[in-house]
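I trust your eye. Have a critical look at both lines of this record:
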Amino acid sequence: MDLIEFKAGQYIQQYQYKSFTPSKVNLEWTWKDPKINTLLAEANKKLGELNAFSLYVPDINFFISMHVIKEATTSSKIEGTKTGVDEALLSIDEIAPEKRDDWSEVQNYIKALNYSIEKLKEIPLSTRLLKEAHKILLEGVRGESKMPGEYRTSQNWIGGATLKDAVFVPPHHTEISDLMNDLENFIHNDKIEVPHLIKIAIAHYQFETIHPFLDGNGRLGRLMITLYLVSTGLLDKPTLYLSDFFERKKSLYYDNLTFIRTSNNLIQWIKFFLVAVIETSDKGVKTFREILKLKENIEGTKLLSLGKRVKNAKNLINFLYKKPLINVKDVEKILNVTTKPANAIINQFEELGILKELTGYKRNRFFLFEQYYKLFSNNE
């Protein structure tokens, strides 16, 4: 089907409201708009450059941990959660009671993402995997009463206080299984010639329109993008996360999704999605370059001045790449040392300008690997 001929779906009269049934998407998509070709070529090029860092950067998984934390906080922020990267690095005991619900939702997103990436080694991206991720996403948080891991069996809606004044009403729950099966078949249909980035752009829109769960659809739909890129081999490691772009362009993100349903304009959404891939890949490449520069400065120069403590220092810096906010107890555990040597190495890291003490206290102090942290917190 040519994108220009796309009909988004139809409104179906239910009791006292109309729900929207989207058209199925498991089709061979074509287009005549040359701008899509230009953006698609650029997006693939930039994605390839980003993926090259997965193969080039030593111990890439250390750095991916912070990418995941950034994605979790930003994707949750789109839904109204107010936990920052700094708070996500703390344990629940260190979080104010009134902020713990938000903190737990972010931690669940991190768990769901890490679990799903690992699970892709065993099973394909599928409705089964999405249900498993959804169960983790809602476990023990505000949405735990909203059928974690199961498709909804009642009507949900977006915007408005009730179904009668809702901004958008997704399809009736009896249609979900059929629509999700169609979406899964589309994702895995290798008999149609649709470029991967076009396919996942359409799949993300369709998932958000089906809204198959009672809660967590936005976060899961964005997580699905990364899972698709890894499962198809476009990325060797999960290094691209679009939530930061979507959060900064939040109005456009929602407007473009809505515009498909109201005006059948899938083309504008695909262009927006491809721009998101281009800009986010570009930013990712710059971040990795800054990481490598920082890593060389610290490991190739600063740590060498520590003499016999170099081994412990390298173990500590590797931990800081994963979690750049620590206290003395963390260092004791990481290095398997007592309090005195833990304090000693922290003091040396402070003198070298690697760590910065944040609290100003003499006890219960926290230390931040500030230069590294800033690479991930600059858009908060």
The domain at 3-286 is CATH 1.10.3290.10 (Fic-like fold). The radius of gyration is 23 Å. The chain has a mean pLDDT of 93.
